[in-house]
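Sample entry (247 residues):
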Amino acid sequence: MSENWIVGINPVEGALSNDAERVREVLVENGQRNARVHELAELAKSLKIPVHHRPREQLDRVAGEARHQGIVALYQAPPMAGENDLLGLLEKVGGDALVLVLDGVTDPHNLGACLRSAAAANVTAVVVPKDRAVGLTPVVRRASAGGADRVPLVAATNLARALRALKDAGVWITGLAGDTEQSIYDIDLKGPVALVLGSEGEGMRRLTRETCDFVAKIPMPGSMESLNVSVATGVVLFEALRQRSAR
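Predicted structure, serialized as C-alpha cells:
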C-alpha cells in the first residue's frame, strides 16, 4: 500500500465519506474561511482523524500542480483491483453489469473526468491497462470530483486477456472508433456490456479492437472528427443508461 495526498474539497469529501479508515490526517490552510472546508475539518475530527492547520506554502508543496482549495488529506491507498477481481465485481450486479474499459488513457484530467462519469452512471468497474494508464494521482482524484472513491478501478496486466474473461462471463463488448459505419445508437446496450474507449491520440490498440464483439462510432454531423475521450465516455455511458431505463 502507498500513501498519497488527496487534494481539494470534493476529493477529500469523497475520501472521508467513502473510505475514512484510510485517511491518516487532514491539513487545512491557515486562515481558511471556506465553509465547506470547515465542515470537512469537523467531519474528520468526528471520525477521530487528526486535523492540522498549516501555512498555504505547505499545502502548495504537497498538492503539486493540483489546486488544493485550502484542504488536503493524507490517504493510504489500497492496492488497485486486478483481473482476478473482475468476476467478483460482476457477480455483485448479476446481469446488469456495465463496465468501462479505457485502453491507455494517460492524461490525468481525462482519466479523472472518465471516473466522474463512471461514478455518475453507477458503472460496475473501470478497467485500465496496468502499464498504460496514469494511475490514481492527486490530479486524477481532483478531476474525478470524488468519483475515484465511488467506482472500482481495475488494473489489468493483459487487457486483451481481461476482455476475454469478460466475454467468457457473458459480457458483450463494444469498442468505440471513428472509422466504422455502425452507430453506437444502433447497438443493444441493455444486457451485461463493456464499453471500450482508446487513448487520446491513437484510439484502441489493434488487439483490443479485435477482441471486441462490436465496433461503433458516435455519429457527428458537424465538422469535428472526434471527441475528447472523457466527453465520449459520458455520451456512451448515458446512452447505455437510456436504453436500460426503457426496458
